[in-house]
Amino acid sequence: MPGYITRKHRDATSKSQRGTEESPFVKWILITIAALFLGVFLLLPLVNVFAQALGKGWHAYFGVLREPDTIAAIKLTLLVAAITVPLNVFFGITAAWCIAKFQFRGKSLLVTLIDLPFSVSPIVAGLIYILMFGLQGYLGPWLYAHDIKIIFAVPGIVLATVFITFPFVARELIPVMEATGREQEEAALTLGASGWQTFWHVTLPSIKWGLLYGIILCNARAMGEFGAVSVVSGHIAGVTDTMPLRVEKLYNEYNAAGAFTVASLLAVLALITLGIKTLLEWKQSREFARAQMVIPEPNEVETCFITRPADGKT
Amino acid sequence: MATKKFNPLPGFGLTLGYTLFYLSVIVLIPLAGLFLRVFEMSFADFWRLATTERALAAYKLTFGASLIAALANVVFGTLVAWVLVRYQFPGKRFLDALVDFPFALPTAVAGLTLSNLFAANGWLGEFLVPLGIKGSYSRLGIIIALTFVGMPFIVRTLQPVLEEFEREIEEAAATLGATRLRTFCQVIAPALFPATLTGFALSFARAIGEYGSIVFIAGNKAYESEIAPLLIVIRLEEYNFEGAMAIAVVLLVFSFALLITINLLERWASRFQH
Description:
Strand content of chain B: under 5%
Oligomer: heterodimer
Number of strands of chain B: 0
Structural class of chain A: mainly alpha
Structural class of chain B: mainly alpha
Radius of gyration of chain A: 26 Å
Number of domains of chain B: 1
Order of helices and strands of chain B: HHHHHHHHHHHHH
Largest sheet of chain A: none
Strand content of chain A: under 5%
């Protein structure tokens, strides 16, 4: 079993490197500090969300969830994500295709511009759409004359969310597509496949994990975005309140338990996102390891067998 | 492009065209719109609005708190990355997955729960507030929220660099009689420096624009605990568009400068590695 051998091998090397390791005392102190820091700073806030949400019992919990405004907020959040994510996925694939598979002038500038929304404050993101589509904006009067509402309505929320989650999928896909190169697609084309066939049967399978990874990150951010959406939404209860905005509204009404109840749903979303992300990373590294282990290098196997007896039982 | 090789793959014009179109509609044109509106103002007006006393207090707080949070992240993030890469211990994979939690958690939820934890009757506040450490509704709260939000940037930037760090160099240092601490300070730390700087800049950049987590925890008092993005929101609610735009442009110019710095740093760091 190749996996077994490599694991042994790695253990054996780490044993022989005593000179470059900290003393166990230092090591455990460092581990304790790191674990305490992560525990207090990351785990405790998470546990606190659920503790506060359920502090008044399940009855109160579901009471909040059954409020019409909360249900409307959940529906709106799902709707916004359902529009935003496909838009950015489509963009991500097209951008990654031209950037990763072709050489052209200004490519690094294009990549930087795609990253731009990451460095823009969400509030500024909301503001620029108000300046475009708001009543005081460039297109505002025209939109008003034609009775089209973008700001303080769902389209504005979608636009702001699209802006915030703009780079997620493209950023994940570009390195994956660059790593796979062009040879496989070229082979498919040579064998007579059409462009679409090549994409569906050759490119897509090779990028599927990266794509899924980008989708879940994009989705998590789309559902959880607060700042940009809060600027353009207008906070109309039951109409333009997304879940994060609903959290804020309940909190400002001194209904902390209610705020935590809605927040707990978003925390569950974060946990699911993390779970899928960890699973994808694990799957990817396993596939990578398997790909590397098809032919074990002869001298590597040799080392294993030599060092194994010295290693004793692990 | 005389050296351009023949590329049989289809769809270049189409995909590049769509990419440029979508990028322009969603990002470039709206951003340009903001700058055009600001250029309509006279420079004196812009300067007056961008540098009101209240705005200056907000910038100072935003940049100061972001700087402190990013520095705190450098210290703790390096420690966490080190422990996760170098040591084997039970629960390691769980901690590793937990590092991404601030990425996945909506910022509003982060702000809500942190402000509750550090409030006088919260799980941490009930011990800390009697000691005089007020983590909620204070400037300290802003730093706490920003540290939370920026933490994964440092850890995730450092981890791959630490993983690829060659043990032989450490062995050489040990053979030459260096203590472990000296090896760390004089051999490992300099090699980690470019990545640390990149992580610091990423975490700093994220902190500058952060809004969601802070409004819940900061208390939001003018001149005292009011961050620059919040001041933009307040100006907008007052229908003072010029005031909002002026502050937004200051933030944007700063973010763009940081973005360019980060790009240069990443290029420098990758050259350092090979």
